[in-house]
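dude i think i finally got it to work??
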Amino acid sequence: MPKDKIPSYHQTHPPDLASIEALKLEGLQPAEGQTVAALFKLRNGDREHLCGLYRRGDAVPLQVKKPT
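look at this
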């Protein structure tokens, strides 16, 4: 069964996509069941960082977990 190909971006990505960290800075989080829309690879010197990107338009307000 073929899997859908996930787009990937290097060094830059479209503004409608954001990492979880970027969403948190905007007070957002991925919606429940929201899948990664693309992969983002950033190279800085001899280091590489790979993360998932989510659609900002599908994100929901960040829910802060209360300590129990």
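The two ends are 43 Å apart (CA to CA).
im so relieved honestly
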